[in-house]
Amino acid sequence: MSIGHVWRTRIRSADDETGFRVQIDSHGIKGREWLEGEDAHRAIRVILPRMNAYGGSATTVEKAVSEIESEGHPHGFLSRVVDRPRTYAGGLQGQIHPMRKPARLALEMALHEEQERRALEGELWRLERAWEEAEEIAAIADNLLLPKRVTGFLSRHARAGSER
Which of 2, 21, 59, 93 shows its CA 20 to 30 Å from the CA of 123? Predict the structure, then answer.
């Protein structure tokens, strides 16, 4: 993808879990097409670093962080950006290139933050499931060496307590 095609990339809101879709210019092969979900994430993770290839000065980075903080959370910033009207006269709604450099850099930062959040949520789910399995195994192990009369007694009293 040439840099000229990258400049025409747009980002807009979507009703899926990512909250955005990306329009790319695919060298005239298919013309412009909208990508959603993971395809949108993959595309924007490749495109934004090319647009922000030279990074930013300390001041630009500070302004980018302030843009994100002004929304209270990276997700809030993303929501604002994808719903933003056109950014310059004659520009297309959601076009990324004409954004001010701090806004483009903030967009890249917010998307990375969102990606990390999603990864952590996935990890958290795995940890919760492992914890549940450990509790099940512990419950089985707790009852392994108890005589049947004790487990029967505990069962009867647990039911009686729940009926009250």
Answer: 21
